[in-house]
Amino acid sequence: MPSFRVFLALFLASWVFLAHADVGRSSRTDGPAADELGQGQGYPSCRRNLVEPSCRVGAWSGGDTFRPRGDQILPSSNPLILPDAEAAPMIRWKWGGQTLTVEDYLNQVQVTGLLVLHKGKIVQEHYQYNRQPDMPMRSFSMAKTFTAMLVGIAHSKGHIQSLDDKVSTYWPEISQSAYGQTTIRNLLRMSSGVEFRELYTWTPDDDIFVWGQLLNHPRNAGKVADIYSYLNKKTSRNQEQGQKFHYASIETDILGRVLLKATGKTATELTQEWIWQPMGAEHQAHWVLSANDKVEGFAGGFNATLRDYGRFGVLLSSNGRRDEVEVIPEGYLLDATDANRQPSAFRPKVATPYFGYGYQTWLFPFATRTFALQGIHGQTIFVQPSSQIVMVQTAVYNKASGRQDPTPYRMRHAFFNGVLRSLGGAVD
Question: Rounded to two decimals, what is the model's pTM?
Fold first, then answer.
């Protein structure tokens, strides 16, 4: 017969749960369309994850086993504590004329992880498809903002003399290329003016295929001269640089290689020294490497846990500071994330029909500064500094972008608006 101590332990455990009932938490082995996403096979990690849904959960969270990795980025010896919110309001959001709950969102959207922070405290934390809090989640293009912040820190430390320096100042091997004659600032805004097709289909006629295969196909390992050859053939522009936003992951990859040449370090070393340690990361992180020149995947190859993505969002919402320490230069961060600081061509509803674009960062059309890190298939960090609200989502959406399947992306936007309204943020 169970002892009194066992009953007491069970009672105390249930009391602790009730004491924290305001914090929404869940972890489940399934989720929407779990069968299609490989539940029956244990969510396998396989190479064809961009085209095969059953490969995605395993390949994009927990770490793939078929791409080369950089060294582990070590966590901080002084991690930033993310305590539970004491009495957070219930989050409600509107869709299709109905007022819905967080559970409704999770039941409808293929989310692997969801984290909502308010004033540095956890309001909601959820995992689906058997994902766990210590698993590294693939960033895809959220990595671009990490790259931009490293560039800003390098500039503040004098490794990059000016953001208006040409790329060729640091990477002379591509001086014949239009990219080589583009300024760092114009690459940050993705405005080189060089034609590039950013598609997520894999056909031989697409530039993204040629560039991606050049970097990542095992048969191209070590063929660094082919990178120079490819870039130096890009000698013309559709328009003058700095005039128009045109999304092109190649520009982030070039920025990253400028960063490495300017500092003499790897992105793994820079991320650990300049962001991960001072920010207060709790877990290890890593970059995947290109097969060709063994350089980190600046445009989409970062991997970290959900909470550490949240800590990065908290750092950005604090204008680059942790306590009294400036980790990211505040002026640079504002230039990167404030729509009012952008030239008119890069402001919301001009750069794109909805978002503006700063330094590798998406800008909401709100009067209150609100910005986003976004990656294909639903990866998200939304940040509103004035309300100190951060929302992180990792996902396995069916389609890479909202142009192909707008519904889950619109639901994500509606849910974030609900988060802002529920927690006292600004939606305007």
Answer: 0.93
